[in-house]
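Ticket #4471: structure export looks truncated?
Reporter: QA, pipeline team
Priority: medium

Steps to reproduce: submit the single chain below to the structure queue and open the exported record.
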Amino acid sequence: MSESLTTFIPAGGLGSRLLPHTLEVPKPLLLMGAPYRRIIDGPLAICTEPSERIWVSTDYMADQIEEYLAGQQKITTIRDSGTLGSGGSLIEHYEQFSELESDGNLLVLPSDHIYDGDFSIEKYLAVHRQSGADMTLMTVPQKSYGEYLKVDGELALGIEKVPSAHDVSTTGTYMFRNKYILDVLQRLRRSNETSLNIYKDIVCPAVGSTTVSHFFVGAGEGFWEDTGTLKRYLRSNMRLSGNRNVIDSRAEIAEEAVLNRCVVLANAALGEEYDIKDSIVTASNDGSVHVTCVA
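Actual output as written to the record:
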């Protein structure tokens, strides 16, 4: 199996779980506490060096994302014709993906996930290559949300909604052998489906029907978190900033305002009457301020 790696980052979603804070700024460009500037900087930080090329698909507020990424190393933005889901985006751009080397590898890296510590794409790729699998799922110790993977060593045996003791959590980060994913996409294209989810429509049918392995990221091997909900978004910002406020440089905050463990986005203006904690704050173009307390 070739060592070549192409990374695909789907970044076109509406960010509906982070409303109202994604009304003016797309989710990948929301602030993320140090060492990242924006959410999407986290995935880009780990994949740029090992990847030969990086494709970022856009749709919702595409202009903002394309402008932010313009000129960055190895990155090409590809615009979806609509909000298609991550799988639908792969199918829409099939002709571009079909030019990949058949013995290379495709990494699907969500734009709203945090990876840091000792996390290594190179180790992930090595496990994938050594397994000879068509697909390798990144997994972590059991989380309290999502579905669970039944495993035996490095092999994935099944998907379960209720975990047993040795099951692991899937993360939405996937590594495919190019030949395999291109064959799947070609087959799905013939069905004329346009809105598809990679996990539900590609990953789940594969587990148990082809060779699927997993790359487990345990304690001391790196950190992973999905920032797609308000609670997890605030939690990741606090962890990365050492529980300090994370504030956009465009925000205007009165000296008398009191903020504790808050994320202030966009061009919010906070007067002296604000005394808030554990909150996400943003402003609409009309100047109205949105404060979401995340208990």
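Status: closed, not a bug. The export was complete when the record was re-opened. Leaving a note from the reviewer for reference: Helices lie at 41-47, 62-69, 85-92, 94-97, 121-131, 178-190, 198-206, 230-241.
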